[in-house]
Amino acid sequence: MNRAILAIVGAMAALVVAIGVIIVVLVASGGGSNESTANKTPAPTDSGGGRTEGELRMAGPEPITLDPAIAQDEGSARYIVEIFGGLLTLDQQLQLQPDIAGAIPSVENGGKVVNADGTVTYTFHIRDGVLFHDRKPVTAETVKCSLERAADPATQSLVSEFFLGDIVGVKDKLDGRADEVSGIQVIDPATLSITITGDISSFLYKLTYPTGFVVDPSQTGGTCGTEDFGDGDSNWTRHPNGTGPYELKEWTFGERIVLQANDHYQLGVPKTKTVRFLLAGGGLTAYQAGDVDVTFVGIDDLERIQDPADPLNADYLTGDRLALDYIGFDTTREPFNDPDVRLAFAMAIDKEQIGSAVFKDALPVANSYDMPGMPAYTASASAPAFDPDGARALLEQSSYGGADGLPAISMAESGAGATASEATSAIIEMWRDNLGVEVEIQQAEAATFFQDISDGKYQMFHLGWIMDYPDEDDILNIHFDSESPNNDTGYNNPQVDDLLRRALVEPDPQQRTQLYQQAEQLVLDDVPWIPLFFDREHMLVKPYVKDFGISPIVVPQLRYVSLETP
Amino acid sequence: MQGLFGYAVRRLLWVPVILFAVSFIAFTITRFGPGDYVDVLAGPRATPEAEARLREQTGLNDPFYEQYGRYMKRLLTEGDFGESFTKYRGTPVWDIIWPRILVSIQPGIVALVIGFSVGIAVGIFAALKQGTWLDPFAIGSFLFFQSIPVLVSLPFLVLLFVVKLGWLPAIGWGGPRVDVGPQDIELGILSTHIILPALALSLPSVAGVARLVRATTLSVLGEDYVRTARAKGLPEFQVITRHVARNALLPLVTVLGLSLSTLLEGSFFVETILGIPGIGQLGFQAATSRDYDVILALVLILATAFVIANIITDLAYTLIDPRVRFEERRS
């Protein structure tokens, strides 16, 4: 008896002390405001710590590889575009600019010739004095070897056909039918010609993607011209030799990537000497503690930071990205083989409400597939508007005769959790309220998800698309042309096919834009995809970091940044 | 000691058998799970032909027992754990795992030392104060910490020590650098970076050790030799350290041995929240991205550590406890 009482008293005393400690801590810390830590200088340590002159510190994703030929994710591309370069590049306004080439080949400067057989030959002159980081000169032969390496099946690139497949002979090389790519010819040590299968104006854009970047053959191995480099250096991506504005100084897995300015970069020496990326733990806490100069802001912290009264508000920077969040339908499967059903589902979603309630207005609502900033974007493009009554009526007119006639429906999304994302739940609820349709959510890990989408296993799926280069063919042709291997919806409209294929090879930009706008409106009306939201980046940038831009797609941008001396 | 030696050899002979079984099961499960690393890598831009080519080149199309045979042959003859596909494409698995193990071990060891020393002290203290309010108070306080999950306690510790007080660095890991072969690692154990992870990992473990020690101490306190020691006038401090503690701590050897093997596991939550480049974080990422060779290497290394730790624990127990040795000599 005595013991039991003692035990209870003791345990309660422990609890009281614990709660007391918590209250003291909260009161003590609640009194001080958040900026109390923003100004203090933490003890300098190796990672993070105080500012060093000329060094920009930011959070960064962990790259999967720094080999340009096989990279295909944004996280890797972010570093590769700074370390390597290709014949052409994109500036921060997404305009084509010459990089290793001295000029952009065009009909006017004689660099572009349309051949009698319909193929097009571009001639590139290598810019004088372009050097690798180790000061080895870049020649036409080096460029040819780099492109051929990307198209070599042994390189195991999954995207070389996507980005280089326009070049005559690349498919033969990928299939093992040829040793060389016949469409790439070295004319003299400083001149290279590339022949592509048709007048595809987006080809020059594709050369700005890492797949077409120039690598050092003595690192990657193999034969190049008359030289044989054997197996090369198996560990070369840990210390790559590129031609980009920055040189990789260090890549410690899971910890950091350090880039150092290339002081003989052909397009101008970067203003910031060192850029240190923290691959883990560089969030808002680190920013407030002064351990990083730039960080991303998540939606949960956004409301606070957008408040003008918040001290962090002055550092807030936002920028639109060329990416689209959408729901895709398998147009060959029940019930979405009926266009009326797809339309009804689209009309039942109130995107504005999801945008304000779930995303706190962090993302712009999408009413087209083309993002603002793309050449053919027009505000007059119109996706089906929110109309719950119309949607219900349409569903009743459809071949299924209303909600009760529909088969079981599920929507797939990528995710490992047991609960759906808030946006998905909101959409499901709108379908329930406005259409009377019960839709189940099917979650799959990324690996399963992408496999099942290409196998056509889902009735509908929630997915995003990030642009690789600012041209409509990177979204419209590859997703909505019935012959495209990347068309996952089974969408097939001969009129759209015709418009898209004409637009692809249309040399006149104005004409091209019109063709794409026509095609896009037709697709929007057929609803193989419901466009939901465009992407927008939210960041915090310290006031002493100047000219830091949020670019709409991954382009080299660190060399424009300058730092005020601490 | 003959018997002990024979026992050790018999146990060790089982190790390869167990590891073979583990490797086979792990290999089979990864190969028959949905999706493979080509699906993870592919994304929407790869053509089906390119995916098929990569599967063919990396042997994914072969029957799984052939793939298993190839893997085991390479592992046993060349000590080669294969290479990463989706996490660090083309990098040897050992180069990825080894530095991370060395990082994960640091907070693990410190947490183990703190957890056990505080646990032992609290356990003995509680036993000596049995019958007063201090006994349940001491144990209860640490039960409170045990019942808070790391997911809750760690952000709280960060809020307190990093954001509010500013005593500790916000960046998860740092310290003097040493080259361990494939790359440099940081000895956070020699810097303030060790404090948060060590605290978060050790606080929940104190109560378990303390309760075990309290129970064994109580039973030892009732033994005749303790009464004898007190009766012959030994100072209480010596009675506790020489006679009580030595005997009360024996059962802890088992717990300690098994804890040692978990050092290699790292801690997914602690490493993810604090951004420590350890093995726990890697294991989770490897599993979700179907990085077959990384998953297998991790499973094999952990299984080996667990089996060896078990054997060492058993042997240590027999060596430490004089009664076990005495029994042996008699038989």
What does this structure look like?
The complex is a heterodimer of chains A (566) and B (331). Chain A is an alpha+beta fold. Chain A has helices spanning 2-31, 74-83, 140-150, 160-164, 170-174, 203-206, 217-220, 284-288, 299-306, 339-347, 351-357, 388-397, 422-435, 446-454, 476-480, 494-504, 509-526, and strands at 55-59, 88-90, 96-98, 112-114, 120-125, 184-188, 191-196, 223-224, 227-228, 246-252, 256-261, 274-278, 294-296, 316-329, 409-414, 439-444, 460-466, 529-541, 545-546, 562-563. In chain A, the strands form six sheets. In chain A, strands 13-18-14-17-15-16 form a six-stranded mixed sheet. Chain A has a four-stranded mixed sheet with strand order 1-12-11-10, with no helix packed on it. In chain A, strands 4-5-7-6 form a four-stranded antiparallel sheet, covered by helices on one side. In chain A, helix 10 (339-347) runs antiparallel to helix 12 and helix 16 packs antiparallel against helix 17. With 331 residues, chain B is mostly helical. Chain B has 15 helices and two strands. A two-stranded antiparallel sheet of chain B has the order 1-2. In chain B, helix 1 runs antiparallel to helix 14 (292-320) and helix 5 (93-128) packs antiparallel against helix 6 (134-146). The longest helix of chain B has 36 residues, at 93-128. Chain B is globular. Chain B starts with a helix and ends with a helix. At the A-B interface, helix 1, helix 4, helix 8 and helix 14 of A face helix 2, helix 3, helix 5, helix 6 and helix 7 of B.
